[in-house]
Design goal:
seven-stranded antiparallel β-sheet, alpha/beta, 6 helices, nine-stranded parallel β-sheet
Length: 434
């Protein structure tokens, strides 16, 4: 069996020394064509392409698998006194260690244990040994040259032409993947199976939506700019998955022709940078203030006329609203005393709103998972707030009601240098403060 990995060989008889991991082909098999020759492990590295062979039987002191879930293990040989540290894909490394265990146990299933001695003796009831057909260990030019390839153990992949798309699938070691300018219409499901992927660039394609399972990935950076993402809420349900909510820090959805900012973005609680330039966005949801970790918000070149007053509750470092349609008209003060704008007394609220009011009144911590049904949580998240902080379930939204100042270090605006706010008011008292 062959395992492509990274190894660091430590000589226990020599103290100190720099530990360097090298690209390695780790193989297990017979030492030669002779039948009597015992099984050996061979290491072929970039610095030793002829290979180093270690006997297996009665020559392995311990195999440390405590960090196997992270794709790490250590094989401690008796002669020579070397510890071989291995870093590889968890699944492939597990398969390699299973073959090694079968060799050590004579084909019988052994006991697992972190840092435990593996031997050919069994304390349990004996089982019928399974004969192993191991190949002969050889070093050829093709195998040695494999380590020199840039694709071997590569953690980064860039695809800008369809001919570069891998026919045999992606390496499970990928941390960064870019697939751009190939008119990709559907997300390849094998991308969602890459356990270590953290940065994904799918810019300038033809994607219309992402499946909900996409949110089960643990991405930190996601670029979806230059696609055809739909405005429908179904296309953004992947943002409701807990994995993507807890890890995603940078999101770029520029150039998608979006007419509104997807409301499900408020559930990306770890998001720090959001770019939504060059769209058709007219309004920003009041609930955006829920994204308390957001520091950079770019909404340049849209159709935004005003921002919600709740943005004053955010601590942004950079806000770009350039090339928008921010109104230059003077701020208008609404008069809630007029009958047509006053809230109707006795108007029945919906069941969800009634339940949401109870949650607010009793100060129930609805942001904790499992405390309140999701429908109620969604109602509370989307309900606009008055300037005093009171949620307003039925109040009218007054567009460009006043000019506000934000808690933001750098604001990029149009020439008028004014920010107009859309507001709601819970009472006459709050409306008179405008």
């Amino acid at each position: 069996m062959k395992l492509i990995c990274e190894t660091c060989t430590i000589n226990r008889t020599v103290s100190g020394g720099k530990r360097v991991f090298l690209k390695t082909i780790l193989a297990i098999g017979k030492g030669s064509e002779r039948k009597a020759d015992e099984t050996k492990i061979m290491l072929i590295t970039t610095s030793n392409k002829t290979g180093t062979k270690y006997p297996v039987l009665n020559n392995i002191g311990k195999i440390f698998t405590r960090f196997l879930e992270e794709g790490k293990a250590t094989i401690s040989f008796l002669a020579p006194e070397h510890d071989v540290q291995i870093k590889s894909d968890k699944i492939q490394l597990t398969a390699f260690l299973k073959v090694l265990k079968l060799v050590l146990t004579g084909g019988r299933r052994g006991n697992d244990g972190d840092g435990q001695m593996l031997s050919t003796t069994e304390t349990s009831s004996p089982a019928q040994p399974v004969p192993l057909r191991l190949p002969c260990l050889t070093v050829d030019s093709k195998k040695a040259s494999m380590l020199g390839s840039t694709n071997v153990l590569s953690t980064r992949c860039v695809i800008k032409h369809r001919k570069d798309y891998p026919s045999k699938g992606f390496s499970r070691l990928l941390v960064s993947l870019q697939i751009s300018d190939i008119k990709l219409c559907r997300l390849d499901t094998q991308i969602m199976l890459l356990p270590q992927l953290r940065s994904l660039n799918l810019s300038n394609n033809s994607l219309q939506q992402l499946p909900r399972k996409f949110g089960q990935m643990r991405l930190t950076d996601l670029d979806l700019s230059g696609n055809n993402l739909q405005d429908s809420a179904e296309g953004w349900q992947w943002l409701l998955e807990p994995n993507i909510q807890s890890t995603l820090q940078t999101l770029n959805i520029s150039g998608n022709g979006l007419s509104f900012l997807p409301i499900n973005l408020i559930y990306a609680r770890s998001l720090v940078t959001l770019m939504a330039d060059n769209n058709l966005i007219q309004k920003i949801p009041f609930a955006l203030w829920k994204m308390q970790r957001l520091r950079e918000l770019s909404l340049a070149n849209n159709h935004i006329t005003a921002i919600p007053e709740t943005l004053r509750r955010m601590r942004l470092q950079r806000l770009d609203l350039s090339a928008n349609e921010l109104s230059e008209k003077e701020a208008t003060v609404p008069d809630l005393r007029l009958p047509e704008t006053a809230t109707k007394v006795g108007q029945p609220s919906s069941l969800f709103e009634s339940a949401a009011r109870v949650v607010i009144q009793r100060k129930i911590p609805y942001w904790l998972p499992g405390i309140v049904p999701f429908t109620i949580v969604e109602t509370l998240h989307r309900t606009p707030l008055c300037g005093c902080g009171q949620p307003c379930f039925e109040s009218k939204v007054y567009e460009r009601a006043k000019v506000i100042m934000l808690n933001c270090k750098h604001i990029i605006l149009n020439a008028n240098h004014k920010l107009y706010a859309d507001c709601v008011f819970c009472s006459l008292k709050c409306s008179r403060k405008v």
